[in-house]
Specification:
alpha+beta
């Protein structure tokens, strides 16, 4: 049968249209298996060699009788330290564990009034890392710069305006909140130490970076537990001025928020000495 040019053009257009409408088959690439293993970080508060409990009395370096009513801090930027000294970032173990203490990934509120701590004697945080041999871990006490300066109304727990850690009158969060009382001539007096500002985000490294390799093994089978002592007796030890804090006799050493700067810096430096790997 003879086809006229117009008919041939229409047929060609139809064939092209049908070819364009044909759905291309797509093959999803196989998902990369997650080979990371769960690591549990356990934080044990102490006062010297004694396990610390809120509202229990302890003698500090100046001989003052003190007791804590609030102890909590932000934990972030967790990492493993490999055998060459490089930091390998860790991530939250799962949505379930992030949900226990908030929904913002990779930042936790370590709160020593939390029901889990009361039940277990330690506060735990679950992260994931690759199996292998490491020197130890590294983490920050505080909030990373970006999160510390976002619009607080858009943030989820453990951040946000209802966290109890936000300075509405000053940009950013309280990184480490330590509150309690001291016996001053038979009268309980409040002390409040609220550490914050970007330059007071503490970097804690619990690993030997030279010499003999200290060992933390993340195994395939687990459990992988890294335990950390947090010794709050060191809060009161000699600091920048070379003398122990004397809360009972010196009201000016009982309170700081952003300032006074000298006291805040002194408290900050003392907190960096609190954290040690539990034997």
């Amino acid at each position: 049968m003879k086809l006229y040019p117009n008919v041939m053009i229409i047929a060609a257009i139809t064939l092209l249209t049908l070819a364009g409408c044909k759905k291309e088959s797509t093959v999803e690439p196989p998902a990369t298996p997650d080979t990371r293993k769960e690591i549990e970080l356990r934080f044990f508060p102490k006062f010297g060699t004694t396990p610390l409990q809120l509202n229990e009395k302890y003698l500090n370096a100046a001989g003052d009788s003190v007791w804590f009513t609030t102890l909590k801090f932000y934990l972030s930027e967790t990492a493993l330290i490999d055998t060459l000294g490089a930091a390998i970032p860790l991530e939250g173990e799962s949505h379930l564990h992030k949900g226990q203490h908030g929904t913002t990934p990779n930042i936790w509120m370590v709160d020593f009034s939390d029901a889990e701590f009361v039940a277990n004697g330690y506060f735990n945080v679950h992260v994931k890392g690759n199996p292998g041999k490491y020197r130890g871990i590294k983490f920050s006490v505080g909030v990373p710069y970006d999160l510390n300066h976002r619009d607080v109304s858009t943030q989820d727990p453990p951040l946000g305006p209802n966290s109890g850690m936000y300075w509405a009158w000053n940009p950013g969060y309280i990184f480490h909140k330590m509150e309690g009382k001291v016996d001053s001539a038979g009268t309980p007096r409040d002390f409040l130490y609220h550490l914050g500002l970007d330059h007071r985000k503490a970097t804690i490294t619990l690993a030997s970076l030279s010499g003999t390799v200290t060992e933390f093994v993340v195994s395939e089978t687990g459990p992988n537990v890294f335990s950390i002592d947090v010794d709050y007796s060191k809060l009161f030890t000699p600091g920048l001025n070379g003398a122990a804090l004397q809360l009972s006799q010196n009201p000016s050493e009982r309170v700081h928020h952003v300032g006074p700067e000298a006291l805040a810096d002194r408290i900050f430096l003392n907190t960096t000495k609190m954290f040690t790997r539990r034997p």
